[in-house]
Amino acid sequence: MTADDRNDDPTHALDDFVRRMRPSPAPPEAAPDLSDLVARLHNEPAVMPAKSKGGVLRSGQRWDAGDVEDVPVIELPRNPPPRTGPPDVTLPTVDLAAEEAQAALSPEIDLPAVDTPPPPDLNGIDAATRQTSDFVSSQWDAEALDQARPVWQPDAQALQLRPARNPRVLAQWQPGAWAGAVREVFDGTTEFVTTANGPAVETYPPHRLLLLWPPLNLAAPLPGRWPRQVRLSAAPAHQAAELLLALMPDDALLWLSPEPDASQAADWALAAEIVLHHEPALRPFQITGLRAFIDAEREATFIRLNADYHQPVVGGAVVRC
Q1: Residue 37 region, left (φ>0) first, then alpha (ψ -120 to 50), else beta?
Q2: Which of these, 305, 226, 223, lies nearest to 273 by C-alpha position?
Q3: Tens of each residue's pLDDT in the chain, 321 residues
Q4: Among residues 163, 170, 273, 151, which one has the least CA distance to residue 215?
Q5: Distance, first Cα to last Cα, the chain
Q6: 10 phi, psi to nearest 5 deg
Q7: Rounded to the nearest 5 degrees, what angle is found at the Cα of 87, between the Cα atoms of 81 and 90?
Q8: How far from 281 is each of 101, 116, 240, CA to CA, in Å?
Q9: Please, how many CA atoms are within 13 Å of residue 72, restricted to the half-sphere of its CB?
Q10: Cα–Cα nearest to 176, from 252, 257, 262
């Protein structure tokens, strides 16, 4: 058998496998040459970074190395470390013996001096008793006198809710009597006035128109459209008769027409216009009230003539409903 035939034997395929798979050892590396190390360290110049000459800030401002100033170092004071030990407390010296001796002493109380009261004044006591007895006796005498007198009765005239009627004011019309009429034209109002102390608000009562006609020679009173006298007054309604009597002769009699009848017979808008035209001392609120009353009367008159009259036949007479 030849050598080639032996190598082809599969049973010897793994012979020397480990040795053949290991790499052959490399030759040892030569040591570095350090003979000129000192010369290279001392002969080659050191490479220093170039000093910056300047630059541009983010805001666009240019700066130069010469503009930079060194800031001095400031040493900030440092807080001392926290103290961990107990604080130093200095207590006063206490003398226990002296304190106990002071506490054992009884307290001293200063009481005010009390004077001995004087003896009672017998004469003063007798005088006071006599005065009290006299006063009680006078009260008994006054009460007995009041019981002997008749019981007081109030005046019947003073108890009347309505004042007594003036005898010159008639309850029913009669020939020869003057005719009067009273009507409220506007209610109470307020007005701003200027005083010495500044502006103020002044309140005025309701105002009334007082109309007066001379006596009529008829069987029944029929006042004319034009009254003899007209007056604007702020007096209460129960004083209107006295104000009208002051405008009449002393012996004349007055008959006041009831307000519903007077409102139908008298021309109140005309009376208000007479006062508005001839009275120069009217206040602004009086002028405003009279004008509003005139407008209301004219509107009421138009409503009445529109509702109370009609023409049944075209071309015929206008009759009252």
Answers
A1: alpha
A2: 226
A3: 445 555 566 666 666 666 666 666 666 666 666 666 666 666 555 555 555 677 788 888 887 877 777 778 888 888 888 888 888 888 888 888 888 888 888 888 888 877 777 787 888 888 888 888 888 888 888 888 888 877 777 666 566 556 677 889 988 888 888 989 999 999 988 877 777 887 888 888 999 999 998 887 665 556 678 888 999 999 988 889 999 999 999 989 998 887 654 445 688 999 999 999 999 989 888 999 999 999 999 998 899 888 888 888 888 898 888
A4: 170
A5: 172
A6: -65, -20
A7: 145
A8: 100, 83, 21
A9: 3
A10: 252
- Give the separation between CA 134 and CA 113, rounded to whole angstroms: 41
Question: Interhelix angle for 284-308 vs 268-278, to 10°?
Answer: 160
Give the three-class secondary structure for 211. Answer: strand
Tell which phi-psi region holds residue 54, choosing left (phi > 0), alpha (psi between -120 and 50) or beta.
Answer: left
Q: Whose structure tokens read 């004071």?
A: 77
**Using an 8 Å Cβ cutoff, are 174 and 255 in contact?**
yes
Contact 174, 146 (CB under 8 A): no
Distance CA 168, CA 248 (A): 11
Amino acid at position 4, single letter: D
Residue 268 · residue 298 · CB < 8 Å: no
For 115-161, the DSSP string reads PPPPPP-HHHHHHHHHHHHHHHHHHHHHHHHHHHSPPP---HHHH-S
